[in-house]
Amino acid sequence: MNKFKADFPAYAARIDAVNARMIDFCKLAKETIYHPDLRGSHSIKDVLPALVPAYRTAYKDLPINNGRLAAVKFEAMKVADPQQAQVLRQNLLNYCKLDTLALVELHQAMLRML
């Protein structure tokens, strides 16, 4: 976050305000969730199917199905031809959409556990 603030100093206060509201899901999961299907992992890809079984295979068929691959494909867009870049963009959007939906579903599941 400090590099981001250094790159955009005019927005430093706003960046701090947003950052203050951020929650690290993995840390929260480690502190609050135990489920035998997690096998010691608290990544979203493991917690989601354990708490929301309907999403057990949600990422399986996506061309981009994990964060490392998403980062690689994002970089590949820089050198891709326009048609390839559009396909990569759509695949990244689909992956990000599922990750966002997963967090919403996990939030709901955790609220039900209270």
From TrEMBL:
Domain DUF2779: 5-43
Pfam families xref list: DUF2779
Protein name as it appears in the record: DUF2779 domain-containing protein
Protein source organism: Guillardia theta (strain CCMP2712) (Cryptophyte)
